[in-house]
Design goal:
2 domains; TIM Barrel; 8-stranded parallel β-barrel; two-stranded antiparallel sheet; 11% strand
Length: 398
């Protein structure tokens, strides 16, 4: 029998949030909502079985977005048949130039979902300072969200982000948002100060994509499988995140009903998550230090330039993070998936690869790093290790 899914207080919303949420970006028919006519009976049945399985397990937070193609429309075929008081529903809408545009786009989401209101309305993709300013501008997106809130069409307003730590932290400290959807997990811990800021402001904290952008853990390297044993890499990452009380829920982007099982099974160790995950994290850190050197592991990220300040806008920080994981943990497929988004991801994944490194002079911008001499060779090695044909993001409007 699977362990019941516990809940955590979702910040100042006071919602009892299950520690796993049912993410809605993998079970839909298409990333293009104009292809709704192609939804098959089998595809719709799979989505509905996935939702029903989530609810049976206690994952009653159903999360989707306006940019997830047919996801909202397909959810709209089952959600109205289910008890509304058994569910927390979240959708996300990207920033718009005016409040009215944001309202109209959200109204389309509500129509798709066949719901009068959503519990959680996220402003989708506050990834940098410019987008935050756009959202906060008088007569803009946040004003539209507030109007929807006054009218009872959403209960709480938050935001999602794929951004760097400082813009997220800045957004959290405005006090304008009830919760945040962000990336934080073992392979990318650098947004932790933003999580701490959310905790300071009593915001709900929702960790997005812990299994995909958290390391492609559904297709782990043999080395990660060995280091995480007896847990799976996904179960390790679940417990690593849930060991922190500042974290309230993790997204499980299920494509089929059985995708929840490995995560719920991990809850057998929920009451000693810190002990179990801490032991495995220690083994992984030892493997990193053995392969890369303790000094590098401790200080590689210090003094690195922001990608906008680098000639050719090479994203030195992110490339070195991927190099660490590929070199020490054999996470090559994950590195390729992320690396080949450079130049294609806009503000969701900014900067460029190191493909043209030798055409620009890096010396001045790397001067603040204690590893200035080693970094160019490591960037070249990362490019050789990861570069393939550029790939597109799953959704241009995510």
């Amino acid at each position: 029998m699977l362990t019941p899914v516990p809940t955590r207080r979702f910040g100042r919303t006071e919602l009892a949030m299950p520690v796993f949420s049912c993410g809605g970006m993998r079970y839909q028919h298409s990333w293009n909502d104009e292809e709704v006519g192609g939804i098959t009976e089998d595809g719709q049945r799979n989505l509905e079985a996935t939702i029903e399985r989530a609810l049976d397990l206690g994952l009653y937070h159903i999360e989707t977005a306006r940019g997830y193609g047919t996801s909202e429309i397909q959810l709209g075929r089952i959600l109205p048949r289910l008890p509304r008081d058994r569910m927390l529903v979240q959708t996300k809408v990207g920033p718009r130039d005016t409040a009215q545009e944001f309202i109209e786009t959200t109204e389309k989401s509500l129509k798709n979902l066949q719901l009068d209101y959503v519990d959680l309305l996220g402003i989708h993709g506050i990834n940098n300072d410019e987008l935050l300013e756009q959202v906060l501008r008088k007569g803009g997106t946040l004003d539209g969200a507030r109007q929807l809130q006054r009218e009872g069409r959403c209960r709480f307003v938050g935001f999602s982000t794929h951004g760097y730590m400082e813009p997220i932290r800045k957004a959290n400290l405005t006090g304008e948002f009830d919760y945040v959807n962000l990336h934080w997990y073992f392979v990318n811990p650098f947004t932790w100060p933003a999580v701490e800021a959310a905790h300071e402001m009593d915001m709900g904290v929702f960790i997005i994509s812990p299994n995909d952008k958290g390391g492609m853990l559904y297709q782990p390297s043999a080395k990660m499988v060995e280091l995480c044993a007896p847990l799976t890499p996904m179960a390790f990452n679940d417990l690593y995140c849930l060991a922190r009380p500042e974290v309230h829920t993790l997204s499980v982007g299920a494509a089929r009903p059985s995708d929840f099982d490995v995560h719920v099974e991990a809850l057998r160790d929920y009451d000693r998550a810190g002990e179990v995950a801490g032991s495995i994290a220690g083994r992984i850190r030892t493997a990193l230090a053995d392969a890369l050197g303790e000094e590098w592991c401790e200080h590689w990220h210090e003094g690195l330039p922001f990608w906008k300040d680098v000639p050719g806008e090479i994203n030195v920080f992110e490339i070195l993070r991927l190099w660490n994981l590929g070199k020490a943990l054999d996470m090559i497929n994950y590195g390729k998936m992320r690396y080949n988004l450079f130049g294609e991801g806009e503000h969701w994944f900014p900067g460029n690869s190191a493909e043209h490194l030798d055409q620009v002079d890096q010396s001045s911008v790397l001067a603040g790093s204690p590893f200035a001499e080693e970094i160019p060779d490591r960037l070249r090695e990362a490019d050789a290790m990861f570069r393939e044909a550029p790939i597109k993001r799953l959704s241009e409007s995510e």
